[in-house]
Design a protein that fits this description.
The complex is a heterotrimer of chains A (467), B (261) and C (359).
Chain A: H1 5-24, E1 35-43, H2 51-67, E2 69-71, E3 81-83, E4 85-86, E5 89-99, H3 103-116, E6 121-123, H4 128-140, E7 145-147, E8 165-166, H5 179-186, E9 191-197, H6 200-215, E10 219-226, H7 234-237, E11 248-252, H8 258-269, E12 277-279, E13 300-301, H9 315-324, H10 336-355, H11 361-366, E14 370-371, H12 378-381, E15 383-385, E16 391-395, E17 398-402, E18 409-413, E19 415-420, E20 454-457, E21 460-465
Parallel strand pairs in A: 1-5, 1-6, 6-7, 7-8, 9-10, 9-11, 11-12, 12-13
Antiparallel strand pairs in A: 2-3, 4-5, 13-17, 14-15, 15-16, 16-19, 17-18, 19-20, 20-21
Chain B: E1 13-24, E2 27-38, E3 42-46, H1 53-61, E4 68-73, E5 76-77, H2 83-89, E6 91-93, H3 106-118, H4 128-144, H5 160-173, E7 178-182, H6 190-201, E8 208-212, H7 216-222, E9 225-230, E10 233-238, H8 240-245, H9 247-254
Parallel strand pairs in B: 3-8, 3-9, 6-7, 7-8
Antiparallel strand pairs in B: 1-2, 1-4, 4-5, 9-10
Chain C: H1 2-28, H2 31-58, H3 65-80, H4 98-120, H5 125-145, E1 155-156, H6 173-194, H7 198-208, H8 210-215, H9 220-246, E2 248-249, H10 256-269, H11 276-297, H12 305-321, H13 325-340
Helix pairs in contact in C: 2-6, 2-7, 2-9, 2-10, 2-11, 3-4, 3-5, 3-9, 4-9, 6-9, 7-9, 10-11, 10-13, 11-12
The structure holds adenosine-5'-triphosphate and magnesium ion (MG).
Magnesium ion binds next to helix 1 of chain B.
Amino acid sequence: MKVGKWKLLLPLALLAVGATIGTSGALATPAQANEVRFAIMTDCKGAFAFGYEVDTAGTIAALSQYAGAKPKNKKKPSAGMTGGSAGGKRLNLVGIGCGDETPALALKETRRLMVQLRADIMLGPLSGDEAVSIAQWARQNPAKTVIIGTAGSQDPTMQIAPKNLFRYHGDGAQWNAGLGEIVYKRLGWRTAALIGDDYSFPWTSAAGIIADFCGIGGRITKRVWTPPAGGDYAPFIRQLPRPNQVDGYFWLVGGANTSAALTAFEQAYGPLNARQHSGNLFLYFLGANTTVAPRLVGAYMGGFGTFQTGGLKNAQARNYVRNASRWFTGQNVNDGFFYNYWNAAWAMVQGLNKSKGAVGPALQRALPRSLKPGFQVANKGVLRLDSRRQAIQDQYPLQITRASGEGTVSTSIVGYVPNVDQTFGGYFGPNKPAPGRNYPPCVKRKLPWQGKIKVVKNGVITNQVIK
Amino acid sequence: MTEAAPAVEHAEPTLRLRGVGRRFGGLLAVDEVDLDVVHGERRAILGPNGAGKTTLFNVICGDLSASTGTVEIFGEDVTKKPARYRAKMGLARTYQQSRLFDGLTVEDSIYLAIVGVEGGRLRPVLVPGKEREIRERAREAAGRVAISHKLGEMVGSLSHGEHRQVAIAMALAAEPKALMLDEPASGLSRGERQLLTELLLGLDRDITLILIEHDMDIALRVAESVTMMHDGRVIVEGTPDEIRANETVHDLYLGRGYGHE
Amino acid sequence: MTVDRTKLATERVIGVAALVVAVLAPTLFSAFWLNSILTQALILGIGAASLIFLSAYGGMISLAQTGLMGIAGYALANMVTQRVPGGETKGLLLGWDPTVGLVAAILLTVGIGLVFGAVASRSYGIYFLMLTLTYTVIAFLFVGSVTLIGGFSPVAGVDTYTPGFIGDIVTDRERLYYITLITAVFVYLLVRYLVRTPFGVSLQGIRDEPVRMASLGYNVALHRTIAFGIGAFIAALAGVLSAWWFGQLSPTTMGLDATIQMLVIAVIGGLRRIEGAWLGAIAFLMINNEITNRIPSSGLPVIGGTFNTVIGFIFLAIVIVSPDGLMGLWDRMWDALRRRGGPPHAEPEGGEPAAVASS
Ligand SMILES: Nc1ncnc2c1ncn2[C@@H]1O[C@H](COP(=O)(O)OP(=O)(O)OP(=O)(O)O)[C@@H](O)[C@H]1O
Ligand SMILES: [Mg+2]
């Protein structure tokens, strides 16, 4: 072991330099008084990695529209923004959180953004478990304000519901309102099995389906939950009843894994029959799969309360699409990921304007309790928050349609369910358990919108009800 | 330089092997060995490389289980007992390849040999009186093999000869009733061999000594009885003089002027 | 010898200085640095110490430590959190007394550690490594698939229900820092003490030559099992602190990434000296923090792997320069000084007559 002295000292010296750089950020610097520090929390890894650009685009587009900001790069939203002010203060985007849908990383990133980078407001997160995690964090940090980006678990605004947490969109259950009734009436389903990722968003999503489908008289005969990490779906598919044993299947398997799960189904039980399959917004992610996706043309699915293509033909929706489309190239502003972050950012601007740039409890008081987002129709287009700061939102069940490209699919709106509230008219509640693997139970019950879902044809809400 | 003292005739057997065999896959390394060693005896086990001497040691001390036969030490059948049990009965040994604790000091190594048979092996606290006593014994054992000046050195940094000294110190420190040495002289210089021989000759007569040694000079001077092994079997037993005179032994071993190892 | 003494003295001085800085840290560093980097480094250091204890003194490189940390955290979280409105939603929510929960969680972890250790006690090297990795994977899959105790969703509130002597660590983060510091010092002293006891010296013997130890009278498997149990105890302390620090538990805290991270920390610090645990942890976190803060703003494409790539290169560099990590580097520097400091001692007087024999 003949090592020259310098060879040993060099790494030590490098280490010392590294340590100096590393600790340079260790000493606190005071925040500037004339700025509002905020952060975006989204995913850049895992099944929703695409969200990084889309969510950032929605946020920056809204700040450009309403607060005078400008995207740094029209093609690359994550490059950030310049300018922008609200309530008389400069908007400072201190960072973009990079999660991977796991709660642990979400919490780490939240701390980095909110504590180290000293953001006062967070727009995000993207995914359900992340939101549960961050809601718990928010409960312990009342001076910080969180506006959920596009995460659909029920707990954050139902059982946990800290006063500094806002959500201007529906949860996973709301997003599926009406779906169960449609497959019951249009496809004659009476029994169905359900398969989903094993975490809070699919649980909440399933809760919405169960509430609707069982509410009108259907029966869920089997619930299968798969580890969210993905992988091999075959063993889970085999736990499902065979296609001749149930009328249909509800799919809640998410993100990048949707088509893997459906492919595993085909391998076990043969080609998919569109009349036997339904699911939540995760079916959006099929778009890229030109083998499986075309077989599902005609299948019904839940959504975000938005629509992938072709909007509602009304002024408020058209107006939103026009405004939102101005800021970036290559962004689909009908996408719920974009739309929900847009609304969150817009609400933040309104709140800051009203609080004159104050953050903390002042901002929390000032944040709007109602908003006029693009796709709200009921109440003259005004979306309201309930007492737990959760949106009461219109919902639009969708149907998968053929698109122009070979093997590609799109969606169109088939129904209109006005003013879906998070409790489903008392089916869920803050003192009831959060949705889980076996909760809620399957029971017949009248929901507020039962028998009143309007037919939507070519983007126009008709007066017919779905039969 | 005294000749070996005459064998002490004691009734109690220290070691009694019956039909002991050890198989490695298709190879029968030790085959149907019967062996009796009595209290206080000095026994050498000789044989060419690969004869099965070390394997026999391993079976006796329990590092390896016997494939066939029974092993009795100090009158007790220990065939099914683990090595640690036999060690605590008073059986100590050294290894052909030193097998020492490279990351420990000489003192700690000898300390371990004492603690191993003394009890308190799992004690997670220091009892000062007890520690002092064991350390004292360890230093004393080191003195007996003239390694006192290296007590604080890491064993890994010592020379080959010093390793041998440490190994013997560890074996002696446990105050065993029977001591098995596997080629203690191999790799030692002339002077070191001389010291070793004197140490062995001066060993307490109450300690039974079983010795594997290729150095005939040492083996035949120390031993009172000799067992000759070949191909896993015992082929001759006798006094050193008988062995010197034996023709088979000559053919196998002495005549060919076997070196060390 | 004099070089050794200088080295020891230098280490003492550095150690005391580090302790003084650690005690004064709340006045020296920003809140973020104190609460995130330093507290976390101490916690990860304790976790790594459990790994280094086993590897440096027992020759066992265990990948079960993150699993055991997770088990302790999950046990604690499930035992102490309560079912209240506006509160936690996941886990068993048993609502036990926090002190009872704390003790029970640690005991449970040690118990599981002893079982794990007993099963692995006859395996060495790569087999031991794989077996202990399996333990962590089992723990991960267990908490992930048994949704009753959490599933993949976060179990929260564990930091709200702390024993009285721990106090409020949610709002008083300095308190948590000091608790962690005290625990780290305790673990350090515990390991340093333990390895001088009969148990500890024996463990080192087993590390070097298990077969020899058996023929010296030791029950090698039992020894290794108990060592593993002690490792589990240290890991349990880290697990509890980590649960308090995080405030929430989810299976990823004992996923493959976390397990590899723990190993990387231990290797960066140095697998042969217990001090390396905390050195590795602080180095790792500083690199981690720099990279996550720098890369997005510098406009590089944010790839999930960027951090892992950078840390991977640093890891590689350290391992190539010094296989025994930063502590190894330090030791080798002194070795070089020693060689320079004059010829080695004259060889011992070979011919001196031995003080032979007993009678
Ligand atoms: N662990 C083992 N696995 C397989 N074969 C072995 C093992 N140990 C020993 N052997 C074989 O058993 C035979 C006896 O070996 P052993 O070491 O007992 O001989 P020995 O008499 O001690 O020889 P030497 O004088 O060279 O030390 C040899 O052929 C050896 O290769
Ligand atoms: Mg041999």
